[in-house]
Amino acid sequence: MPTIIEVAALAGVSTATVSRVLSRPEQVSEETRARVLAVVRESGYAPNVAARSLRTLRAAKILLTVPDISNAFFASVIRGAEEAARDAGYSVVVGDTRHDPDVEDQYADMLSRREVDGLIFLGHRLPTSLAPLMARKGTAAPIVNGCEYSPDLGVPSVHIDNAAASADAIEHLIALGHRRIGVVTGPEISPISRDRLAGAIDAATRAGLRDSLHIRIGDYSAGPAVDHTRDLIAQDVTAIFCFSDEMAMGALSAIGDAGLSCPKDVSVIGFDDLPLARYFQPPLTTIAQPKAMIGRRTVELLVDILRGVDSPSRQVTLDHELIVRGSTAQPASAR
Predict the structure, then answer these.
(1) What does each C-alpha distance from 316 to 18, 147, 159, 295 come to in angstroms?
(2) Per-residue confidence at 257, pLDDT binned at 50, 70, 90?
């Protein structure tokens, strides 16, 4: 294993410059940074992270908590976060909170004990144990939210415009000719579920169809969506908008169990554009979120905070996209 002295000699720089490239790359010119990183890659040099942590009081770790690690949506977010963290010289510790506030606090204590340098949480609650830190530092605290944006959280965030995305889904169904539309939401406690419902209601209201919107409260999982879909079919809806692709999968299952077909009898639209969505039968129309980019931008925001870099915006809204596939079509009455 080469030493930092050997790396510096090969790159033609000082050992201090090598250290800065690996810990604070924004302080080094792009040309020098590229030259040093090339030598690091070619030589296989690995810094002594433990020693560096003692010198700098940095753990070189970021804690990322998710409310449900079994949800495929979060896998892509985590991957984007890990890539960005690695580029910035950090590793990522992932915690599955299982929607449990006590577990959220247990993980957050890692930040208080300085076992990690910062926290990214993808849920809708700010851990209560972090209230003193937020009171002292406000948005300068090394805490960032991803996905579940709410201004009440008071922390930097990366998200999409969930209300606008949901409105796009409803407008797509209305444009196809659907007038009786079912909506299966996420839990009422979730800010993104409330935003998506508001967007759906606004779009239906603008089209004069507010009273034709049939709303059921789900939990983002497939199981309850099956029961809700059975109920909505009994209400003669011709289309169902689910607030997650996983719920849409449950809806497709219930439609088939009822002896109906999608989209001939009932159209279905989801949310998230999971990797398997294009392989559903039929392929799922859905709202695509830039999942990996959400993970990457949350890390970039957090690293800016850790390095004291001023950011032009601490609330980042990324673009969404309506992906039209085979699960939506005109209702039979409009053909």
Answers:
(1) 32, 10, 6, 12
(2) very high
Dist CA 296 CA 84 (whole Å): 5
DSSP string, 50-107: HHHHHHHT---EEEEEES-TTSHHHHHHHHHHHHHHHHTT-EEEEEE-TT-HHHHHHH
What strands lie across the sheet with 118-121, from one edge to the other?
91-96, 61-66, 118-121, 143-146, 157-160, 315-318
Q: What is the pTM of this model?
A: 0.81
Tell me the C-alpha distance between 233 and 255, whole Å.
8
Query: Residue 165 has which token pair?
Result: 């995305």
Mention every residue, 6+ apart, whose C-beta is less than 8 A from residue 308.
none
Task: Note the pLDDT of residue 25.
Answer: 78
pLDDT tens sequence across 135-148: 888 888 999 999 98
DSSP of 40-59, one letter per residue?
A: HHHHT----HHHHHHHHT--
Helices 72-87 + 291-306 axis angle, to 10: 40
What is the four-CA torsion angle of 63, 69, 74, 75, rounded to 10 degrees? Answer: 90
**Residue (of 187, 176, 162, 170) closest to 288 by Cα position:** 162
Longest distance between any two alpha carbons in the chain, whole Å: 76
Q: Where are the alpha helices (DSSP H) in the chain?
A: 4-11, 15-23, 30-43, 49-56, 72-87, 101-112, 131-137, 162-176, 191-206, 222-234, 245-257, 291-306
Residue pointed to by tokens 């449950």: 250
